[in-house]
Structure prediction request, 151 residues.
Amino acid sequence: MDFYPWLKALHVLLAIVAVGFNMTYGIWQARAGRDPQHMGYALRGIKFMDDKVANPAYVGLAVVGVILVLIGPYDFENLWVIVSIGLYVLLVVIGLALYSPVLKRQIASYEARGAQTDEFAALSTRSRLLGAVLGVIVITIIVLMVVKPGV
Ligand code: HEM
Prediction:
């Protein structure tokens, strides 16, 4: 039995979950921005979804992706695979080193002084900006995976 298409289906499912969850973070923050007493609940919800669902799905994506390359018709010399892996590493570095700490500081700032401070506004702008950068990287990876330029 050929496992390749089944593994690829799992890979796509993980991509839907990871990227789908990520896309809701902006919606939660925008809604809580209009209703600041719910900001803490929204931010802690985002952190929960990120830690427990989206990030594990990204780990699974890389593991299944590497297996697909090892057992399938592509290899680690294909340009789209090389660039995607590079972008994936960049995604993880920005996510762990920049985005996650900002989200933690946003929660701490909200819990200490509320949502109406300059500090909280600056942290929110920063997390929105980082979210947009991560979004561009993830969309580029998806386009590379689907279009496979150079193959
Ligand atoms: C280390 C990272 C990754 C590797 C090595 C990898 C590798 C692969 C491989 C080998 C395929 C199968 C291509 C085919 O048979 O058509 C694939 C498909 C796909 N990958 Fe990845 N992947 C990685 C990360 C990601 C990420 C982070 C996303 C999304 C955010 C993603 C989204 C997709 C999608 C949507 C497809 C389906 C493409 C198609 O059927 O044409 N992958 N990936």
DSSP finds four helices and no strands in the chain. The first helix runs from residue 4 to 33. The CA atoms of residues 26 and 128 lie 7 Å apart. Helices lie at 4-33, 39-71, 79-113, 118-147.
